[in-house]
Give the backbone structure.
Amino acid sequence: MSGSQGEDGVGGWVAAFSGSTVRYRRRLAVDGVTLKVSRGQVYALLGRNGAGKSSLVRCLLGQQRLTAGRALLFGEDAWASRPRAMARVGVVPEESDLPPDLDADTLVAWCQRVYPRWDDARVRQRLRRTGVPPRTPVNRLSRGQRTQLALTLALGHGPELLILDDPTLGLDAVARREVWDTLIGELADRGTTVFLATHDLAGVAGVADRVGILVEGRLALDEEVDALRARLRRLVLPAGAPWQALAPMGILSCQEALGGVEVVVERFDDALLAAVGGGPLEVQALTLEETFVAVTTGQAGGGAP
Amino acid sequence: MALRVQIDPTDPAPIWRQIEEQVRQLVGAGVVAPAAPLPSVRDLARALRVNPATVAKAYQRLCEQGVLEVRRGEGTFVAAHVPRQDEARRRELLAGAARRYVAAAAGVGASQEEAVTAVRAAWADGLAGERGEG
């Protein structure tokens, strides 16, 4: 995790937090978070309930002020530049903010008048494909249809940055898949930058370029997905193997496994493993879910020294 | 258009490399014929539920290696003349897979004979499956 100064808002950063802190009365919800989202990146912000994800999202949207630090959108203060910045951003909030008594047709027509760059044909095609009924009021849509509608409307004006707050929350497997499908289609077509908070680790695992993990308001991890894969490993060694020799790799956990010892390390090193000898029975990367559990339960933060 | 590629989330290799290796092997083994069309980046990304940039990176590397070629406006195809898969590389992949299997078999206490029998059975199942789908 880098806390480097002086590059806020310049270069390729589409969104950035710098020393961002949010305090609600006595509770510190976000504690000195610094992270950057570069153009074309899909940044997934992970964390348990109450870890501070939604607070950060609201600050980036200029809906809430930081207690300290800065939240920047396109290099400008997110709070001050909200009216300008929102034309370049697509948003799907955690709770639908669509007018409950309006239907999709009416909402699309309304958005078309508001946004000069509205892509009406594409929006209507997307709504047909995902089965959102055009004449049913929002409050009578299923949760999945409502999310698809919100996502489709958020993409309609061709935003440079898409901000999603737990878009698959409360959806069934089919509806979740449709959300990721729509997002993957958008990435294929336009390469939009995405900043999303999510609990759907299996869904986001293949899509995110970079993940941040919040633990009690602090950013415990901020790293490229490929780099995480390269360093976190689960090794199964034959029973009696000298697993203690793996200590320089940073042992996160060690337990007996079927026919051997399972060791999770945070800085995998091929050469060191060879030096230990004996030959592991298994060498696996950690899934995003396993990574998340390792970080949030206390051990694996901080990345490489 | 389906392409038998599978992402293994516990494979230490980055996803783009997993896709690259598997497509190279499918092409090298002749499962995907020379000049055959491949799924678009978008379709394969959707099928695998990965970022399209990941698929694009794998395709791009395979194009640079002469395994695939892009025809403007038409899509991505297997090259008409695919460079032959290096024999040494092929043996190395096979030996590596065998070592992993032997370790797994030993882990459940299988004898050599049992392990070989299991391979034969799996092989027969696999070939039957291929015919069934065709």
In short: DSSP finds ten helices and 14 strands in chain A.
